[in-house]
């Protein structure tokens, strides 16, 4: 469970203890959508990249290979060989963003698989059963991810339904954790705050779900196209109503600057596909900003991605070589680039935690928040 160690303003330094191990917060979750990080990164690689926690996708693993198959392999821990904590999202975001045809009812959502077109039904109970089969450390509640901008009255009805779904998720998880064949009988449940970009609805929903005394709370439905300033504003409105003694998770965020600003506003946990996705296209993070290896100036550059970087890639390979691999379509190029970016993100979190430990996070933010967004 979450232990708050100290604060600097709203920024929090903590520790989260689970059945699968302890992780320090603020933390970044490395996104292994289909039980692997795109770019040829294995769960064993993640340990070398200073990863603390891995995130997998409920919807994708339900569709392929099937959550029952993963359960038969001992859950995600046995399937992937990742020994530490894992979080599975509920599938809600994918249901509402990928599925082309869907029908929302009180019971749940009927939708069409993006893989083979078959009709699938998912509601709170189904999502909890799938995540129980996956055996993740943390399961996310099933919710409706409302797109921005959204109509006010629809948003109000939606968050009321999401609260009812959350109550059903909690009841179903309580039941599943008592079954003799459950992969992880100590699985945790996080609720998700929704409300589009309406301050009053966000606060109303946060109060409602806080009353359910869950293991953690997430902020969903942001970083989906709205301006960054709006996202920061919403976090600031919600934060006073988030339980202080529970971990806080900002879903799908984001850039290094977004993370620093999220920590500044009281967030503990982040995830994003950006470090791996951008790496596969040659966009690499450094402490002075982002470089694009596709640029011709790196063609004969014998220096590492970043001087002084401790990642396994920068210890051995040049910008010129990695650029060549990417241009030649060699998988090794993507693997090396992704390794560097994930190492950078996890090291960023280590530096944030160190700054909080020393009471100098405000200075750290002033120095790096804008700098890390710069394109070199």
Automatic annotation (TrEMBL):
Its cofactor is Zn(2+). Signal peptide: none annotated. Residues 252-258 are annotated as: RNA binding. Residues 10-372 form the tRNA-guanine(15) transglycosylase-like domain. Keywords: Glycosyltransferase, Metal-binding, Queuosine biosynthesis, Transferase, tRNA processing, Zinc. GO terms for molecular function: glycosyltransferase activity. It is an enzyme of class 2 (transferase). Catalyzes the base-exchange of a guanine (G) residue with the queuine precursor 7-aminomethyl-7-deazaguanine (PreQ1) at position 34 (anticodon wobble position) in tRNAs with GU(N) anticodons (tRNA-Asp, -Asn, -His and -Tyr). Catalysis occurs through a double-displacement mechanism. The nucleophile active site attacks the C1' of nucleotide 34 to detach the guanine base from the RNA, forming a covalent enzyme-RNA intermediate. The proton acceptor active site deprotonates the incoming PreQ1, allowing a nucleophilic attack on the C1' of the ribose to form the product. This is Queuine tRNA-ribosyltransferase. It comes from Yanshouia hominis. The lineage of its organism: Bacteria, Bacillati, Bacillota, Clostridia, Eubacteriales.
